[in-house]
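FORM 7B: Structural annotation worksheet

SECTION A. Query
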Amino acid sequence: MKIGVISDTHGHEQHFAKAVEKFFHDADLILHAGDILYHGPRNPMLEDYNPAKLAERINESKIPIVIARGNCDSDVDQNVINVPIQAPFAYVYAMNKKIIVTHGTQFTYCNSPENPDWKKMIGEISTQANKLNADIFITGHIHNNILERQGNSILLNPGSAALPNRKDKRPTIAVIDDEKIEIYDLNDSTLLMSMKI
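SECTION B. Predicted structure
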């Protein structure tokens, strides 16, 4: 089985399209960790900002998509996206794993997503993952990558496909298969992080 993981597309349709074409075209499922259509007041609008086209692309996807609601997602978004936008958690059972997807705004670190306290952030996410007995716990929101094993859970943040906060400004996505989780640069397909499941 193959699962594509994406987050924080913020209405940038071509970034979502690139993820599907390059990485998710043969996936069995796509998980989106929120902030789907709206660019948000702190984020720039790139040339491919087209939330209506992104909603259309999501609605036409032949690959099932599971979405967790982000802080920039609204009731209006649910009116144009035919996939349920779930909040605060989306639960998936796949590959004999309990996978939980959330945007991450419920954690206190989200008060400063640009400069998170990494140790505190990992601690809060790990506590929540263990409380929910998640094998894989996926967040978004900070537009930066996390791939760590904490206790019985793997913590994953795919970063942002459109508006990365990484120092190198690489837009990123993740792929989960039966053996591993990998994070890739969306533009040049460089493997940036990998972990065996």
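SECTION C. Observations
Residues 129 and 137 are 6 Å apart (CA to CA). The first strand starts at residue 2 and ends at 6.

SECTION D. Sign-off
Analyst initials: ____
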